[in-house]
Design a protein that fits this description.
305 residues; alpha/beta; Metallo-beta-lactamase, Chain A; seven-stranded mixed beta sheet; five-stranded mixed beta sheet; 12 strands; 19% strand; globular
Length: 305
């Protein structure tokens, strides 16, 4: 009798937590969709044929070429019209985008892919680790740990795009002279993908790295994703090994988009404020410090991943 009562109380507690968690996520998703995900941001050239076309924080990037363009990330479910307007404002056509790339499967970066795919006719490339999640509109994300079931709720899923190609770590994506290399840097999601590619800016070639994310997922804090420690360790090593001049991330605040945008007016060349190898190293260092602090705290509780 007492055991049944204890189990019943535990079930009620878990359902209450799930309801609160689901309600918070739903509120964020609804607000994101209604507002287009983020406030608008001025689109601009970062360097050469590399452009910012995202919102004020959730990023999207356009790489242009004579045989078609590449677009990285689709923002929230409601952000796609903003991205398309930014592309048009820069003088380009969404129908000239031939390849869509995704950094990771979360709804604030993959939510608008289906609409962008429909508008452009582009082929979508997603890593093997995240492809099933993207194809399911966000359902089944293992980094949610015990709360994975929340990702299956209809009101928390995003429109599912068609995943045309699944790639492995080290894959090269080409559109004419554009060439990007995929670096799977897992942890935030199983297939979280960082991209590296060269950009010619005048008489110099600049090396760009787009970091997927080094933010710690919910499952790490509750110790329910046993592979995650090794995944983050691998990601830190991979990112440190990449040559870089310009670095960007999935969230604009992390690489200082607005500050660097404002500094262009005083710079010798508009791309100069974005050349920031030291900032890249500091970002990885601070992310690794947070990771090790959380792992240490989990170990003290006896639940280290």
């Amino acid at each position: 009798m007492l055991q049944r009562l204890a189990k019943r109380r535990l079930l009620v507690a878990l359902l209450s937590i799930a309801a609160v968690f689901g309600g918070v996520l739903f509120g964020k998703w609804r607000d994101a969709s209604n507002r287009g995900g983020q406030l608008p941001a001025e689109p601009f050239r970062i360097a050469g044929n590399f452009y910012y076309v995202g919102a004020n924080d959730v990023t999207s990037f356009l790489i242009t070429g004579p045989e078609g363009h590449v677009l990285i990330d689709g923002g929230y479910p409601g952000t796609a019209p903003m991205i398309m307007a930014s592309i048009a404002k820069l003088g380009f056509k969404i129908t000239d985008v031939k390849v869509l790339l995704n950094s990771h499967a979360h709804f604030d970066h993959a939510g608008g892919l289906a609409e962008l795919q429909m508008a452009s006719g582009a082929e979508l490339w997603v890593s093997e680790g995240d492809a099933d999640i993207v194809a399911a509109g966000g359902a089944g994300d293992p980094t949610l740990g015990s709360f994975r079931f929340v990702s299956y709720l209809p009101f928390l899923r995003y429109p599912a795009p068609s995943v045309d190609h699944r790639f492995k770590d080290g894959a090269t994506i080409r559109v004419g002279p554009i060439e990007l290399t995929a670096h799977v840097t897992p942890g935030h999601t199983p297939g979280c993908t960082s991209w590296s590619f060269p950009v010619r800016d005048g008489d110099r070639v600049l090396r760009v790295v787009h970091i997927c994310s080094l933010t710690l997922p919910l499952a790490l804090s509750v110790g329910e994703y046993p592979e995650i420690r090794g995944e983050f360790e691998r990601s830190f090593r991979t990112l440190r090994s990449l040559p870089v001049d310009i670095w960007v991330t999935s969230h604009a605040r992390e690489f200082g988009r607005y500050r660097k945008f404002r500094e262009r007016d005083k710079a010798k060349a508009p791309a100069d404020p974005f050349i920031d190898r030291d900032g890249y190293v500091r970002y990885i260092d601070s992310s690794e410090m947070r990771f090790r602090k959380l792992v240490g705290a989990a170990a003290t509780r006896g639940s280290a991943p």
